Structure formats: structure tokens, C-alpha cells
Amino acid sequence: MVSVILVSIYLLVLLAGSFRKSAADSDADSYLLAGRKLALFPFVATMVTTAYGWILGIGQLYYEYGISAWLFLSLPYTTFALVMAFFLSKKIREEQIHSIPELLQKHYGKWVSKFGALLVLLLISPAMYALMTSQLLASIFRIPTWICLVLALLFSSAYIYRGGFQSIANKDGYKFLFMFGGFVITLIYLIHTYGTSPLESLGSEKITFTFSAHLWEIITWFILATVVLTDPGYHQRIYSSRTPQVAKRGLLISVICWTVFDFLAASIALYGLGLMPNLPNPALVYPLLANDFLPPVLGAVFILGLLATVMSTLDSFLFLSAQTLMLDLFGKKTDTGKYMRIGLLLVSVLTFLLLIPYLESNAVDFFFDFTPYMVCVLVPPVLSVFTPRFRLRGYEVGIQMTLAVLACFTWNQLSIEITHDLSAVVPGAALVILYQMAALLLKKREQGIHN
Known about the structure:
Elements: H1 2-15, H2 28-33, H3 40-51, H4 55-65, H5 69-73, H6 75-94, H7 100-108, H8 110-123, H9 127-141, H10 145-158, H11 164-194, H12 197-200, H13 204-207, H14 215-225, H15 232-240, H16 244-275, H17 285-293, H18 296-329, H19 336-355, H20 363-385, H21 394-418, H22 425-450
């Protein structure tokens, strides 16, 4: 009952001031990028909360693999966040654009941009986060998951209806506090109440790093983690930063915050494993721990921390999806606020329809179905923008993107037939790299002939 009351209050607070008309309703920079004036703390808060939205999937993997999950769950993403901070953030900020499809159009042409927009829509689909939010709400309110899905989409889209990205950044400051506060208090309670006995009951493979046993998973996840370099959420926040220096410092501080939160998330998941060793659905380790092993008020606070973590990514991806659909794909470059609101409605409906077959699935399934496409299709052309010596011509990039889609799709179909565990990202990335090398060699040969 306490959880129901506190979560209801939390959701209503999100709506406070949501329908106030903004003076920046039609200005693209103001509505989409908070006027490019994001200071350090808002940058860190919105970056940390948005990038850590996959919280139920994270709990599941720590439950299943122990702390070794950090080697493929967090280390790769931290590595590429540092690459972005030191080598790409300044260049991205100086582009003075609004989105990745706009970046592709600037350097490769219209059709590559449209193709990229379609793939960006898949990458930033809010579906996975809407699924997790609806599962959390269902565990609290004890109502069907599909009704919770409607509620999740309604509340997340409503409070960014008028305020745009500035509203997201403002709310993420509060979510940052809920996220860390809920996990810190919960871990302190678990240590105080149960000591270390739940952890001591676990086998050594759960509480020590085992590189060799998970070497192939680590390699695969490092390839998957390159998606960070083309993550529209990262790019949007860099575009929105007040200066390139704010973007760089903000990313570095975000890495520290993620590392601290990794410790909290892993520790609580391992307590969950020790206290509930045979869960049929490990993705629910956090909500079940809150319901069965925490006092009502603390359980509600912990659930709020989970909701804040997931919903920060849900609202951001709803917003980015609407932007990609209406501005990049359909080309509605004027009257930004009006078309963004239409886009939010369309994306919410499409997300609901997409998720109907996945309501009983978990976030890990969803992640592995879609992420390989994004890595193979978007990472090479976006990275090549900032490394001109490796840049292909527009039509070559179009061919490369098409090959990547076909490779991932074909491998997924083969995996169904032969039940192979190899992620599609591996053969897809290999094919894309080979194509890029061949295209660059051919280009160099052509230049040599003309010279």
C-alpha cells in the first residue's frame, strides 16, 4: 500500500507544470537542445540517469553471472564513454547540428540520412524501457501489464509535451537523486540487517572475476558497446552542453557516477541472489527484493529509484524517437513544438503495438534482438565523419549500411535454425569492416590512376 501511494505521488509530480506553454515552443535549439546552454550538473544528471536505464536487465545479468557481469556489462560501456569524452565530444559539439541523421546528411547526403534515421528509430526505440517500466508498475499496482504500459507511455510523454528537452533535463536532476538515494539506502539496510551471510553463501564464481570463463562474452559485449559512439542520447546531450569543455568534463564525471552505481547495482543483485537463489525470472530480482525483504517504506523508496532510472531513459527515447520521426524522416523542420507533439503521440502508439508480443519477455531478450543492427549500421559511418581518411562516399555508405542489415538479419535467421549462441554483431561487424577496407583500397587505387 505504501508503494502504491508513493509511486502515485511520484507519477503525479512528473506531470506538474507539464502543459504550460513554452516561449521556445517553435525554436529548434530551445525545444530540442535546451538552447545549447546545459550546465555541468544538469548535463551529468541527465547523462547518468538516461544511460543507465536498462536497470532490470542489469539486475538479471548480475544475478546470473555475479560480479563477472561487470566485465561485459559495464567495462565496455565505460571504455567507449571515455573514448567519446577524450576524442569525440569536442568534435561533436562543434558540428552545430541537432541529430545523427542531420550529421549523416551533412557528410553523406540525403538518402544515407533517411536510411540512418530509420535505424536510429530502431536504436532509440523506447520499447525496452517502456516494457521495464510497465513490469515495475504491474508489480506495484497488481494490474495487467498492458494497462501499466499505457500508463508508462502516458506519463513519460505528457511531461515533455510542452517543455521539450529542458523539461527532461530538469526532471532528470530529481531522478538522479532518487536513483542513487534509493540504491544507497537499500544497500545500507541489507548490510545492516543480513550482514555478509547472503554473499558468503554464493559460490566463488559469483563473487570473483573470471575472465577466461567469459572471454567470448566480453569480446562480444565490447563490440556491442561501440553503440555508445552513435547513441543519440549521448549526442543530444553533447549538442546541448554550454561548451565543449562542459561536455568533456560532464562525461568524465558521469563515468565516475556510473562506476559507483555499478557497485550498488551489483551488490544489491548479489544480495538478491543470496536471499532468493532460484528465481524463475531473474529480471525481477530488484522488485521482488523490494516486496519480500525490505520494510514497506524502504521498499517503496527502492522501487522509486528503479522507476526513476528506467523512466529517465524512457522519456528521453520517446523524445528522441519523435524528433527522428518528424524532423529527420518526415522533414518537418519548422514549428518544432507542434510536430514534436504529433511525433510523441505516434511513437507512443507504435511502441504500444510493438510491445504486445514482448509483454512477457525481458529486457535482455529485447536488447540482443535489436542492438547488433545499430552497431553494424551506424557506428562505421558516424565514426568515419570524424576520421576523414576512413570516410567513404555517400553511395558506398548506403551499400555498407544495406549489407550490415542483411548480414544481421541473415545471421539471426540462421541462429534460429542452428541454435547458435554467437551474436549477429560479430559476423555483421566483420562484414562491414571488410567492405570498408575494400572500398578504401579501391578509392585509393582510383586516386592513384587519376594522379
